[in-house]
Amino acid sequence: MAGKPSFKVMTLTDAAAERIREIVEDADRPLFGLRVGIKNGGCAGMSYTMDFAESAEKFDEVVEDKGARVLIDPKAILFLLGTRMDFKRDKLASGFVFENPNQTSACGCGESVAITPAQPEAFAAAAS
Known about the structure:
Blueprint: E1 10-12, H1 14-26, E2 33-40, E3 46-53, E4 61-65, E5 68-72, H2 77-80, E6 83-89, E7 94-99, E8 103-106, E9 113-115, H3 120-127
Parallel strand pairs: 1-6, 2-5
Antiparallel strand pairs: 2-3, 4-5, 6-7, 8-9
């Protein structure tokens, strides 16, 4: 439907958007944004991945939120639908945190997760 805004696969908190903007601005080469995906591995079965993106790949989902740009690997879209990306700092560590409604469990070390793909009705709900 023309004029209807599309839904975002992922949203960013203010802290995540600020950190992504900092990373892109401070990079030693021009960046289009950060690429987010998932890979198999770890004790819970999957883990989130992040990398620098100099350009968008053919089937990447491009999310622009709060002045920051995230590219989502097409193989990860169903696993990341509805995810909110945050950036947290504390005395001992800092990093991106994924608040993912499709995540069913996480391992004790915090490095891997179990994620179930979103069901088709989740797309309909997100688009309305």
